[in-house]
TrEMBL record:
Family: Belongs to the cytochrome b561 family.
Cross-referenced InterPro entries: Cyt_b561_bac/Ni-Hgenase, Cytochrome_b561_oxidase, Di-haem_cyt_TM
Protein name: Cytochrome b
Subcellular location: Cell membrane
Membrane topology label: Multi-pass membrane protein
Length: 182
């Protein structure tokens, strides 16, 4: 168990980098969803795929790092239900950081569109082309993404509640160079 009151600097950097990438991927995903096929849509799809694969790789790094650099303990004053909710939310966030990019990658393969990371590195197809499977995976990818949006809203709301209402250090220990609220 981490006895420090704060997360390690690498944990903080990975958290905020991934937050920006995930929010960007969600924004691009939502904006391109209803677009008609065009060069811009194809460009956005590729950017979305590249960010997704980057998130997948960073999620693996983050999970390995978390096993090494354990997070700081939650305050002992936190009610048991909040501790349980925090652990469940973090577990679900990690599951989705893997499941969403993998479902998108598999969907792309099933629809017959390879993933070429950054336009340079072709990635192996996770499944064989199959239009019906591609449609199912598109629905799965979308449902998981909306689930992630809901979890992110709850995550941010909980962090803000701790910071602004409870005035504890739950949020500040994940902020770069932040002091505890007074």
């Amino acid at each position: 168990m981490n006895t420090s009151p704060r997360y390690h600097g690498l944990s903080i950097a990975l958290h905020w980098l991934m937050a920006l990438l995930i929010i960007g991927a969600i924004g691009v995903g939502l904006s391109m969803g209803e677009m008609s096929l065009s060069p811009l849509k194809i460009k956005l799809i590729n950017w979305h795929k590249w960010v997704g694969i980057t998130v997948l790789g960073l999620a693996a790094v983050r999970l390995l790092w978390r096993m090494y650099a354990r997070p700081p303990a939650l305050p002992a004053t936190l009610p048991a239900w909040q501790t349980g909710a925090a652990h469940a939310m973090h577990l679900l966030l990690y599951v989705l950081m893997f499941a969403i990019p993998l479902s998108g990658w598999a969907m792309s393969a099933a629809k017959g569109f390879p993933v070429v990371y950054l336009g340079l590195f072709p990635l192996p197809d996770l499944v064989a082309p199959d239009e019906a499977l591609g449609d199912t995976l598109a629905d799965v990818h979308s449902a998981l993404s909306y689930g992630l949006i809901a979890l992110l809203v709850a995550h941010v709301a909980a962090a803000l509640k701790h910071h602004l209402i409870d005035r504890d250090d739950i949020l500040s220990r994940m902020l770069p160079a932040c002091r505890r609220p007074r």
